[in-house]
Amino acid sequence: MTARRKRDKEPTFYLLTLGCPKNVYDSEGISELLLQANYRSVADHRRADVVIVNTCGFLQAAREESMGVLQELAAQKRKGQLLIAAGCMAQRFGRDITREVRGLDGLIGTRAWADIVPFIQKLRAKKRPAPLYHLPEVGDTPLETVALNRQQTGLSRASAYLKISDGCSAPCAFCTIPSFKGPNRSRPLPHILEETRRLAEAGVQEIIVIAQDTTAYGRDRGELDGLPALLEQMVAAAPEVKWIRVMYAYPGHASERLVEVMAAHPQIIPYLDMPLQHGHPDTLKRMRRPHNVDRLLRWIEAYRQAMPHAVLRTTFIVGYPGETEAEFQGLLDFMDAVRFDRVGAFTFSPEPGTPAFDLPNPVDEETKQARWERLMAFQQPISLERNQQMVGQTLEVLVEGVDQSVSIARSYRDAPEIDGYVVVEKELPVGQMSRVLVTGAMEYDLVAMPADEPVMVV
Question: Closest by alpha carbon to 210, among 28, 423, 378, 394?
């Protein structure tokens, strides 16, 4: 049999990922398991035997996107093709989804993606057209412990996510994640380190450490400050990896030891994503979030003193129930005091089943939107000021693409897809690190030239 005829007989799959980097990681696991089972990935869903959508169910807008995609794919299904909803929305809403999406063959929930191959086999074997469900109770489902091979999926990116735990044990009043992800459960250390080594062997330049709460790593095993020790062992396991980036740090678990370890190891870049959600203590109390703002300010000061070029990214929620104009102004004052490098913001979305859903004194939609616009406008000159401080500096950047003789790159200050870029006025090798001289700054992006071709900075 020729290689082409053999490929034509291989079952094919199409996998679409919606939502956050945690879903990206899970999708890589799904893809790897299917490839190991002799499935072949295709780029066109119309050519696939199995279509899988890894859904997001965190907020109403994300659910609407996931539902719309499923409905569109269901309408285009051909005879014999399977359509599967996976991930967060599947776990959270289960059978309700099949009432809105006619033609959906199966739903497989969070922490169940490791069963994707036998699940598809059951779908193929079933005789009745009714959908098949694999939605185990989140409290009873162990966290998958497989260490992804990463090379099995043909990984060629210079940057890759590495999930160290799943679920969340934080009590945030507005968040639905514990209801469908379950409590925080840390992955075994040997599996994380093995995956770190495999990423290094695959040529990955940047490992992005992710979880619902990275600073909770090990707490479910009685380790109250496990992240710093994990990062040190990752550095030792893969010294050739240039950048290790930490995302999704919970402020209540941020420790002095984390600052010490980040400052001691250049591989762990001085960038931290810490979603704070608000800056006024009264709002934070209603959110059931850490609300000792003075303690947080002291920690931020220590973080920046230890690493003078450190970057701090955060996200805020505006329009939370009971948020007065004085509380919102307190948030702006907090932003002014800290001078965050990167800020994202969302308007409050009341999620059924959360304590915040029934809170009194809701903020109307018009006020929410107006406050969001005010916050983003308030942050813009701060972001510009922080970027302008980089003009004249030499940075190492990771080149992600080239467009019309201009390279699009990221520095340590930029996480993929959520932060800005460094626009380099020359073609540089994609997927490689290059040194550049920053020559200009905008609110979100920098402009640079190769460091070996300096120009006069104006």
Answer: 28
